């Protein structure tokens, strides 16, 4: 079993839809959770960063962490064609853990 | 502008040839990383360095080598021992606070293809 599981998609939605992207994980020591956006043939860029459980909002993006269920989510409101990209979840342990584990990425298409 | 640069954007390797991918950062970050990205797989760690003149193997180091002679630079050599080198290679850097709030920032990547 992989440490981090992420549905590869592709996920296709109409413009303006609410998008939900998810990852599950098995390591209960993960404390830091990230979402990266990666456009085709580009490097990933950091979108959201959260520590431990809870929600974090930034504009149209909301990151949610449920440590009891080992489940994290990224919500995109009012999705735009420019949101079409691959979204990678990533996570890292707390004390002494520097190694970041990445999900395989979910490919998202937002249709105009 | 602060950031991470990788060159070249595309690289072609012949059988039996060693090739070197460049990674430079001007973010004053201590830690640097090399990942390999294959379709349908997450980023896999090849090598990392938390300080100048020191580096450690990641999960898939076989067939690769690195050096860290300067804080700003972390070149990756793909040797002829790497039998399946075709992939997208990503360099990243971070402040390097182990276990802390450090996050990794990525370069634009190098696509390596075998002729």
Give a description of the structure.
The complex is a heterodimer of chains A (112) and B (115). With 112 residues, chain A is mostly beta strands. Chain A has strands at 4-6, 11-14, 19-25, 30-38, 45-51, 54-58, 61-66, 71-76, 85-93, 100-102, 106-111. In chain A, strands 2, 4, 5, 9, 10 and 11 form a six-stranded mixed sheet that branches. A five-stranded antiparallel sheet of chain A has the order 1-3-8-7-6, with no helix packed on it. With 115 residues, chain B is mostly beta strands. In chain B, strands 2, 4, 5, 6, 9, 10 and 11 form a seven-stranded mixed sheet that branches. In chain B, a hairpin with a 2-residue loop joins strand 5 (44-51) and strand 6. Chain B starts with a strand and ends with a strand. The interface between A and B is medium-sized, with 29 and 26 residues.
Query: What Rg of chain B, in angstroms, do the CA atoms define?
Result: 13 Å
User: How much β-strand is present in the residues of chain B?
Assistant: over 45%
Overall pLDDT of chain A, averaged?
92
Q: What string gives the helices and strands of chain A in order?
A: EEEEEEEEEEE
Q: Greatest interface and its residue counts?
A: A-B, 29 and 26 residues
Q: What class, by secondary structure content of chain A?
A: mainly beta
Beginning-to-end CA distance, first to last residue of chain A: 37 Å
Specify the biggest β-sheet of chain B.
Answer: 7 strands, mixed
CA-based shape of chain B = globular
Chain oligomer state: heterodimer
């Amino acid at each position: 079993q992989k440490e981090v599981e992420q549905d590869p998609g592709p996920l296709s939605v109409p413009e303006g839809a609410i998008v939900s992207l998810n990852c599950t994980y098995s390591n209960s020591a993960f404390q830091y959770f990230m979402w990266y956006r990666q456009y085709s043939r580009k490097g990933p860029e950091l979108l959201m960063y959260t520590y431990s459980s809870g929600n974090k909002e930034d504009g149209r993006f909301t990151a949610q962490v449920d440590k009891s269920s080992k489940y994290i989510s990224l919500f995109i409101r009012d999705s735009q064609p420019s949101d079409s990209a691959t979204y990678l979840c990533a996570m890292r342990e707390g004390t002494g853990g520097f190694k970041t584990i990445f999900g395989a990425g979910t490919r998202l298409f937002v249709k105009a | 502008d602060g950031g991470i640069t990788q060159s070249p954007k595309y690289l072609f390797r012949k059988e039996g040839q060693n090739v070197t991918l460049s990674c430079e950062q001007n973010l004053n970050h201590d830690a640097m990383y090399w990942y390999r990205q294959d379709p349908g797989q997450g980023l896999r760690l090849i090598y990392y360095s938390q300080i100048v003149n020191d580096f450690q193997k990641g999960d898939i180091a076989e067939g690769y080598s690195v050096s860290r002679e300067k804080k700003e630079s972390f070149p990756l050599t793909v040797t002829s021992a790497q039998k399946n080198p075709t992939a997208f290679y990503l360099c990243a850097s971070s402040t390097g606070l182990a276990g802390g709030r450090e996050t990794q920032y990525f370069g634009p990547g190098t696509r390596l293809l075998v002729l």
